[in-house]
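User: Here's a structure from my thesis project, written as structure tokens. My advisor, Dr. K., wants to see whether a designed sequence matches the one we expressed. Can you design one independently, without my sequence as a hint?
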């Protein structure tokens, strides 16, 4: 019988695990939150991942559980583990992707470079941090934020007063120094339960309005030291937190030549979409190999350069499907991936991958192919 891998969450990441699961001979099963989600082709159940009975019913027929997102509550994850279910990444690791304050504290214990930070329980604590950091800071809600949500740059504590007022007893916001960075990077590693690990090339990510718009692999003009430091940070975090599966470490390259950890994701990640077509082993196959404790694949690039451009929003008129032919005719080297989502302003509805020898040409083709879906 094929190994049965259960994915909690029916979004685009689960959708993109379907093809590599088939190729690896794995039986992929998905618990989707709603009917008609991106991964509906593999959705064997629909229900609330926050309900223990629903999750218990789903995992009865799987050998290992993994995730499309980090939002499954800790009490449910720990209940599964206590009942003997293989969960990767496990709750002890996933907690650090679920709560940014917990993450910052643990990374400090590991000696990983990161921005100055502090918990802010009230306006006085927040203002004290701002006063000590040139009157500016980045305030984050510790849980639930993504794609720029739950993040504010503030210059006075009252600019986050609504978030402070919403805190329950014992809760705090996270405040960080406003880092002067020259670019954002991402380092991905994959780790098996046995401890074996591989690292992908460090990549440059381009953000627009808090959303990842483009990824260049490998990061241009990356000195050997930067490559070594980024990979070392990724490996140290994966091992130190006990991550199993894919880990993405978002990084800042600062104007004073530091490499600092921004955030973590313990799953396939937008910064690794390029690897679907540009690496020997794409991140979705690699994640399945890792959580199933299969030998890891070669993460090396197939071409000198790969560029991923997100399709954001989708066409204002007509459907996404109507745009495929034009993009394919004009840009036959482009690999187009869509998520089965309806167009909506700012929504990630797909991405385009292009690889080649000349970076300027690769960037041009990727952007031009993605523009067909505007």
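Assistant: Designed independently from the structure alone:
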């Amino acid at each position: 019988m094929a190994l049965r891998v259960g994915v909690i969450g029916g979004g685009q990441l689960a959708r993109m695990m379907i093809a590599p699961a088939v190729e690896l001979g794995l039986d992929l099963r998905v618990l989707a939150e709603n009917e008609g989600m991106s991964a509906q082709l593999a959705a064997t159940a629909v229900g609330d991942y926050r309900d223990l009975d629903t999750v218990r019913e789903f995992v009865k027929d799987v050998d290992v559980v993994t995730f499309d997102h980090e939002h499954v509550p800790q009490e449910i994850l720990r209940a599964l583990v206590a009942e003997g279910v293989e969960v990767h990444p496990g709750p002890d690791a996933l907690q650090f992707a679920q709560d940014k304050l917990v993450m910052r504290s643990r990374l400090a214990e590991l000696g990983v470079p990161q921005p100055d930070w502090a918990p802010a329980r009230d306006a006085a604590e927040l203002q004290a941090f701002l006063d000590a950091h040139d009157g500016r800071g980045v305030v984050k809600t510790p849980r639930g934020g993504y794609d720029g949500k739950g993040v504010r740059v503030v210059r006075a504590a009252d600019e986050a007063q609504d978030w402070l007022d919403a805190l329950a007893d014992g809760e705090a916001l996270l405040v960080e120094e406003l880092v002067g960075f020259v670019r954002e990077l991402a380092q991905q590693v994959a780790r098996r339960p046995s401890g074996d690990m591989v690292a992908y090339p460090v990549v440059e990510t381009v953000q627009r309005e808090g959303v990842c718009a483009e990824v260049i692999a490998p990061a241009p003009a990356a000195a050997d030291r930067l490559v070594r430091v980024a990979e070392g940070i990724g490996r140290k975090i994966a091992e130190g937190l006990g991550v199993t599966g894919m880990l993405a470490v978002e990084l800042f390259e600062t104007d004073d030549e530091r490499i600092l950890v921004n955030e973590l994701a313990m799953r396939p990640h937008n910064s690794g979409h390029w690897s679907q077509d540009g690496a020997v082993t794409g991140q979705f196959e690699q994640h399945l190999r890792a959580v199933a404790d299969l030998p890891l694949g070669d993460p090396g690039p197939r071409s000198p350069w790969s560029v991923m451009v997100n399709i954001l929003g989708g066409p204002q008129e007509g459907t996404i499907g109507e745009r495929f032919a034009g993009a394919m005719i004009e840009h036959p080297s482009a690999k187009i991936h869509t998520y089965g989502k309806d167009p909506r302003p700012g929504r990630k509805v797909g991405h385009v991958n292009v690889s080649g020898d000349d970076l300027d040409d690769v960037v041009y083709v990727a952007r031009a192919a993605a523009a067909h879906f505007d």
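When you compare it with your expressed construct, this may help: The mean pLDDT is 95.
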